[in-house]
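Student:
Attend to each token:
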Amino acid sequence: MLEEFEGTVLGHRDGHGFIQKDDGSSDIYLPPNEMRAVLHRDRVRARVARTDNRGRPEGKVLEIVERRDHPIIGRLLQENGIWLVAPEDKRYGQDIIIPKSATGPAKPGQVVVVGLTEPPSLYGQPVGRVTEVLGEVDDPGMEIEIAVRKYGVPHEFSAACLDMAKGLPDQVLGADLKGRVDLRDVPLVTIDGEDARDFDDAVYAEPTKIGRRKGWRVLVAIADVSHYVQSGSAIDVNAFDRATSVYFPRRVIPMLPEKLSNGLCSLNPDVDRLCMVCDMMIDAQGDVAAYQFYPAVMHSHARFTYTEVAAILSNTRGPQALDRAERVQNLIHLHDVYRALLGARQRRGAMDFETTETQIICDEQGRIEKIVPRVRNDAHRLIEEAMLAANCCSADFIMQAKHPGLFRVHEGPTPEKLELLRSYLKALGLNLSVSDDPQPSEFQAITKATEGRPDVQQIHTMLLRSMQQAIYTPTNSGHFGLAFEAYTHFTSPIRRYPDLLVHRVIKAILSKKRYELPQLPVPGEAHAKLSRRLAQRGRAPAAPVVKGKAGATQSAWEAAGLHCSANERRADEASNDVQAWLKCKFMRDHLGEEYAGVVSAVTSFGLFVTLDALYVEGLVHITELSGEYFRFDEVRQELRGERTGIRYAIGSRVRIQVSRVDLDGRKIDFRLVHDDIERSMRPVRSERNDRRSAISEGKSQEQGRGAKTKGAKAAADAARLSPIQALKSAVKKAVASKKGKAKKARR
């Protein structure tokens, strides 16, 4: 009997699908006839029925284990008197029949949300009813409305949550100050982006002596969200459900109601705010010599932007500095601390890959006006290093107290990715490698040794891809990328639920109590999917077997970590989906135009190219490269032509033409029109081509000119023929050639 397995159906826009197996092994192909009774994201039990003509194992669905109760978004259409919804996500391969009585107030062409009333079967399409009308497809912000429902992002606060938020005070009350350190005279300031609306961290530094050594006292003050969001309250339940704020161009879906996120818990200038403080003593080597945590009340003395701080630090006598004269010396102290922390970062071997982040600038209608790079300056890095230090201290504080909590864990490469990285470095001829138990310093050494190489971007990309994704878990195993033995998220409780939990744990430790997680629901497909994936890698139990109170506590923290990790990915997916839609909409106005770009990824089916001018990525399919066969070299991460030896790898410079935009599929297709690969990445001939070249050199120049003339004439003749005529001509030539050979054989 053939082995049976369970997995999740992944539909494909072309009608077929795949089963993503629970054990993490290779996906199983599902032909279109097997997709008739299932939908994208259904869980099924299946077996391999046969191998298709392409050598792929082909699955047969034996049982539908679970139907995903997930709304489907699409456009309502009326065809020949029949109402149906065409799903926006083309992985749902079937239109949904809507009875006339179930269309509600929706009109033809509008975007609607559909709930299924009858699943698909072998002989019938799925049937549903309209549960919500989103509006016209071209309405501003429609792409966001679609994404939040498509990915199941909670976007409406419960009535109980909103009522509780309304009952909160508009300002800090006198009773709230009890037991807090008064820091209102300390000139703490916030430094954020120009478009920031909430400010959850403030900083201050002053020189001091640590023994006989030079050092600084550094305060990182974080909004005390836990004072207003009580564990297990209606606001807390909603915050846990969201787990994170979701950021879209021109819109944010916050984790907390606006009264908290932009009001009481935002460290706005010139108002009193409650905060939790990480008070650190940092020496000249950038090491934290001592730290303490305490609740406080603060009064932000200024709201700075990154651009403004960078300008002041670059010219302390310039116009920006003159406008903020009373704060300039504080900023200089913070910059001195940053340089010390940066030195410590480099000594411990933390990785620092500089990548280009972009920002989408939209018009009033929500359409892209331009895409610009986000330039990181010393002000960004200053805040980043201060937050890293505070997060590291919070992790140490929790570990020293032996209290359960959520750590931010980033593990090193898996054995499979490690072997691939080694092979890649060896193929490049680099005298560098990584050990069986790699340390962050080994990766840092590779980045330093490859600086200035033309393929440095390609090398850094491969180093990044060898890493695992960071997760939240109560089991600390360090942060590989940052080279910390223990690390948490403490600095953003307005927008991240794990940070809120860390604040509660720290407060419990300070009060010599123990924080117990409330009974919060952790449902969700994303949670279950991530749980299975981590269990396959041995990083976390899919269903922890626990006994007693301690085991129950560990199990609850494990579930909370999985939930927060899964929802973090959900937020990223929803945000990326909206950005992809906007970019597709933007590129429809640039069809046929040519741009220079760089290869950002290489796959067996083509090249992904990021355009220099627009910062948009698209695919050059392998069939668009040239008229030869290209082989994918996984080790070198490149495509190489078998006839010419031309190579395309990450970092190769190319010129493309925008050939196609698929708005529904969120895909942009390019056509290669000009190769502009740098000298080190230029095509090389294989040994076979070298031999052919040597033989051809013995031929006369006259023959060469004749061949060129003949070839040019043939090309010109072919260019004047229609495709049908060209085909007929080719057939005639083939027949004539065959007759000629037969005649010669008879002779």
The domain at 591-693 is CATH 2.40.50.140 (OB fold (Dihydrolipoamide Acetyltransferase, E2P)). Confidence is low (pLDDT under 50) at residues 536-548, 676-728, 742-747.
